[in-house]
Amino acid sequence: MTLKEQLDVAMKDAMRAKDALRLSTIRMAKSAIKYKEVELIAQLDDQGVIGVLSTLAKQRKESAVAFREGNRLELAEKEEQELAVLLEFLPQQLDEAGIKVLIEKAVAEAGASSAKDMGKVMKLVTPQTTGRADGKLVSELVKARLAGA
Predict the structure, then answer these.
(1) 20 to 30 A from 14, CA-CA: which of 4, 44, 121, 146?
(2) How would you classify residue 95: left for phi > 0, otherwise alpha for psi between -120 and 50, otherwise beta?
């Protein structure tokens, strides 16, 4: 079952359960996916859907932090609840240790020895971490690893 089909099933379940927050979050996700498909003039595969959902999840995290800093706790909680719904449809997120293992393999495979080789390493690591880790974090870890090489 594709991710889009999973979203459809989850949306129907949320309608039946009268779960307004879950329903609105899934509708928002489906809308963002449809918008991206119209933009690209093509149907998204599961990787494309994961990319869209990852973007939405990242936006929710950033919004929750901003609301907490602004002392708007009720809005921060809503964003965190939406984030929890989105994370159900994303693959398991990698922790720092998992990312570092992938980076070590990529460094060995690319024969990278300095910061100049960061592009080569990122080219190998990015496909493995897409949707499973924040690109900024991966970039920082690669930079730190190559600086210490």
Answers:
(1) 44
(2) beta
* Pairwise CA distance, residues 67 & 77, whole Å: 9
Report the C-alpha gap between 32 and 14 in whole angstroms: 18
Condensed to tens digits (0 to 9), the pLDDT of residues 75-127 reads 999 999 999 999 999 988 889 999 999 999 999 998 888 888 899 999 999 98
Final residue of a structural domain among 42, 69, 87: 87
Domain span at residue 22 reads 3-87
Last residue of a domain, one of 39, 58, 87: 87
Domain count, the chain: 2
Integer angstrom CA distances of residue 46 from 81, 103, 139? 23, 24, 24
Residue position matching structure tokens 């927050």 = 21
Within 10 A of 64 (CB to CB), how many other CB atoms are there?
21
Number of H helices, E strands in the chain: 7, 0
Q: Are residues 7 and 77 in the same domain?
A: yes
Same domain (yes/no): 78, 106: no
